[in-house]
Haloacid dehalogenase superfamily protein (Canna indica), 287 residues
Amino acid sequence: MLPIQTQSSSSLSQLHFPNPITSFSTFILLPSTPPSQPITRKRAPVTSNSIRMGVTSSSSSKWWWQRALGQRFNGEGAASFLRVAAAEPHLALPHISVPDIRSVDWPALRRLGFRGVIFDKDNTLTAPYSLALWPSLSSSLRQCRSAFPPIGIAVFSNSAGLKQYDPDGAEAEALEEAIGGIHVIRHEVKKPAGTAEDIERYFSCPASHLIMVGDRIFTDVVYGNRHGFLTILTEPLSLSEEPFIVKQVRKLERLLVNTWSRQGIQPPKHALVSEAKKCVKVSPLKD
């Protein structure tokens, strides 16, 4: 089954990606921390009014720069990129592709037998580094919460809730408050590495009964497909906060996926979905 093509994603085949091998090599070699002495800091409580993740009144600009640089480099993501491109391209193809979550028919997915939805955070529900829900998504998120039971929705992020960047869970708590109490799963390993055990334990069901929603192909989609989730790929909400190299890697990801789709490669089969189009709204903006 090929990913659903939308008007916003169809133009990706026309993207011009200058020297992708050089750009991706730079991405792989980018250090996760700057070559300087370790920086110590005192941690202040994070509130839902924070504008950027990890920036509080006691945080220095050096710490924020160090953390932001670390979040932009995902060593496992880079290694996964190469493994998938070489031998497992089907893992990079989502079951459903949509502009954003407003295009997803949540009640239809619930009727198919799915028991829960896991959202990525940055550029899926919020702008990068933000603790505020993207305003236009509030209606769709309410519909999702209505379709699934109270504990049927959670966030699984490579920022909030990840021990490396949120060791005491303060940012996860602030995000939970900002998005109406939706639980942020705490975990220790960045997607796409690690297992699905933390997620399956929270939902008390196998990953095959869950939906993974995210904006990154070689993190969210690959992680989801590798563990048997139904995968939904969204377009990023905002690129203004992303560095140049991340934007270039996004383009390369999309170009590869479009190429593999044209070659007839399909995402992994999912037992609960025989026709993904039934789960996509025709006129999502009317909600």
